[in-house]
Design a protein that fits this description.
The protein has a 4-stranded antiparallel β-sheet with strand order 3-2-1-4, with no helix packed on it. Strands 5-6-7-8 form a 4-stranded antiparallel β-sheet, with no helix packed on it. A 4-stranded antiparallel β-sheet has the order 9-10-11-12. It is built from 1 helix and 19 strands. It is globular. The chain folds into 2 domains: 173 residues, Lipocalin (Beta Barrel); 88 residues, Thrombin, subunit H, CATH 2.40.10. With 273 residues, the chain is an all-beta fold.
């Protein structure tokens, strides 16, 4: 078990967003998207795990023959502490980080790393048994970018300048129960809906106004990003809740306990395309 970083500050470290030669996008040099082409709209990565929600890039001509020292770094930017990945759209790179008791949404120029804009709001780092910081990734839809903080702060921002289009505080407004490590699923845009993994079975708001379209209950959410899928001609979204879906038979000397795995559930509300 990791130490509580509130009492062990020596373990707190900074995430760095690195943009390297051949357009390698890397958060702490761990999550990598590689392309030998300049950033163009056809190769955008506007949400967590990419445009097809599968973590697979359709680009070709990837560079694999790098020098032993690795590809040359083009630029880097410190974004605080957190586990947010990056979204790339229309020549901009978006991510989230926490520093000085604030979460910040960052927008960088993808070619040179210059900060285009930032949007900050008060947020505890939430370092319970780990480093803490935001865990969701901003989602870009046209000229809007959506960001969900771990304590229920939801923003729709103008992707060009960071101005607030609308904002909500879901934990207070909807009375939602906060999971132990906060909300970490990234927003999913589907039609006119912004679908969120909050509550026991998700929630949808109008992406243009932020008004609630539907919500499930106030049970504890899981930590996954909503995943759209089709089954028998109907459309659903899958997400995890805070409950287990199966229970392995325990050894005779042990009492039954909660399964370590999350419960995977599909929305019973069909989502039209």
């Amino acid at each position: 078990m990791s130490p509580d970083l509130k009492t062990n500050p020596s373990f707190v470290y900074k995430w760095k967003l690195l943009i390297m030669k051949h357009h390698i996008l890397s958060l702490c040099a761990t999550c990598v998207i590689v392309s030998s082409h300049p950033p163009i709209k056809a190769s955008d990565w506007p949400m967590f795990r990419g445009p097809n929600h599968d973590g697979i890039s359709s680009e070709t001509d990837w560079k694999i023959n790098w020098p032993e020292s690795g590809p040359a770094k083009l630029w880097e930017a410190a974004v605080g502490t957190g586990f947010s990945s990056v979204s790339v759209a229309n020549g901009r790179v978006f991510t989230l980080g926490n520093e000085d008791k604030k979460d910040t949404v960052y927008a960088f120029d993808a070619t040179n790393g210059k900060t285009i804009w930032t949007h900050s709001y008060a947020s505890d780092i939430g370092s319970k048994f780990y480093e803490g910081g935001p865990g969701s990734t901003p989602t870009v839809d046209g000229e809007q970018v959506y960001a969900l903080g771990k304590w229920g702060d939801l923003f729709c921002l103008n992707a060009a300048d960071g101005n607030i289009i609308w904002q909500r505080q879901l934990e207070k407004e909807e009375g939602l129960r906060l999971p132990d490590w906060g909300f970490n699923g990234s927003p999913l845009v589907h039609g006119n809906m912004l679908i969120l993994n909050v509550g026991g079975g998700g929630m949808a708001v109008d992406k243009t106004s932020g008004k609630t379209i539907w919500r499930s209950n106030d049970e504890e959410a899981g930590y996954s990003t909503p995943l759209p899928f089709s089954l028998d001609g109907k459309h659903f979204v899958a997400l995890s809740s805070g409950k287990a879906s199966w229970q392995p038979k325990p050894p005779p000397e042990r009492k039954p306990g909660k399964s370590p795995g999350p419960r995977v559930m599909a929305s019973t509300r069909p989502i039209p395309l």
